[in-house]
Amino acid sequence: MTNPNIWTDRQIISRIKDPDTRDKTLYALFYQLDWRGAAIALVRKLGGNEQDGEELASDALVAFDHNVRNDRFQGKSALKTYFLSIARYRWLNHLRRQRPGLLPLAENLEGREDESAEMIFLREEYSEVFRSALAMIGDRCQKILELYMLDTRMEEIARAMNLANADMAKKAAYRCRMTMREFLQAHPAWLDRLRED
Question: How many CB atoms are located within 10 Å of the residue 132 CB?
């Protein structure tokens, strides 16, 4: 078998589509190039453990293989980025099913592995960092800001949060925005992560 470290994405696709080289190629990507380890690290970064990562990595490889063989990969990102985007979306979907309130702003990502992986990956990475930062300022403010970012009317926010009226909701949203700003200013690492994404 040739050295997988020098394979181009085009060669990898060709090898996956060839029944004679498919299994060896997937094995090389997963173990020799350690795409498995990258998927596990991603899951751990997003709150999972080693076992979660192992299961997710295998699941993502099956989906990746299927998509490549069925021409669903559009070539708008590197293959490894594409693989990791599949892993990420499947993990976020798993989290939403297990803990429905955890990712209230996440859109349904099932079956979206064929979209521009790079763009979706970056958008979701930004959203994930922002949601994590929101969680640091407390449940009440998190809920208020989520409603606010969804352009919910102040009257509805007041009802949802048991506030007296729309003016109280507006004040609460302002206070929470200031709390979020202060949190980000006090924790520049979070701000840097948002800027990176």
Answer: 13
